[in-house]
Amino acid sequence: MPIRPAVPGRHYKPATVRFYFDADVLGLAHQIAGLRPDATYPGDPGGVVMKRLRPPCPVTTTAVKDRVWIPQVTALGWLIITRDRQIQDHPSEIAAVRDSGARMVALSGTDARGTFDQLEVFMSRWRSIEACLTEPGPFIYTATRTTFRKVRLGV
Predict the structure, then answer these.
(1) CA within 20 to 30 Å of 58's CA: 38, 41, 75, 85, which one?
(2) Planar angle of CA 15, 82, 60, nearest 5 degrees
(3) Is the pLDDT of residue 14 over 80?
């Protein structure tokens, strides 16, 4: 179901956004946001999905730095979906997650190269990803088609 612009004068139920897809998975973001009113991504103009009106994303461009958008979407209570083959090797991103109390799932490994592969990982791990919505942050999980494991955030 595609995202449609709101029709002036028509009343829609508001969407509650729960998932934020990082610029690293923009192709996946467009697919999921077209199907679910609770998903957004940088530059998302908002629109109507399943008779729910999703507002525009406050992260208006893919050029926003991690240190800016991670705390911003965390403050909104959104679960972050990103792609990072070796997230455990990026101390600045881990620090941004830890310091802001973010909740993040990183699609990882060779399983998550292109959009279709990312979709396969996302759907294979869907129940684990959705369960993260009730878990308090900070945390990072890495997801592949066959694994879902927590990354050590350090001190």
Answers:
(1) 85
(2) 55
(3) yes
Question: How far apart (Å, rounded) are the C-alpha atoms in residues 8 and 75?
Answer: 30
Angle at alpha carbon of residue 23, lines to 74 and 30, rounded to 5°: 100
Tell me the pLDDT tens digit for each residue of 113-142: 899 999 999 999 999 999 999 999 999 999
For residues 13 and 48, what is the distance between their CA atoms, to the nearest angstrom? 9
For residue 140, the number of C-alpha atoms closer than 13 Å in the C-beta half-sphere is 27
3-state secondary structure 121-143: HHHHCHHHHHHHHHCCCCEEEEE
Instruction: Return the amino acid letter for 54.
Output: R
The helix or strand, by DSSP H or E, that contains position 66, with its residue range, turns out to be: helix 66-75
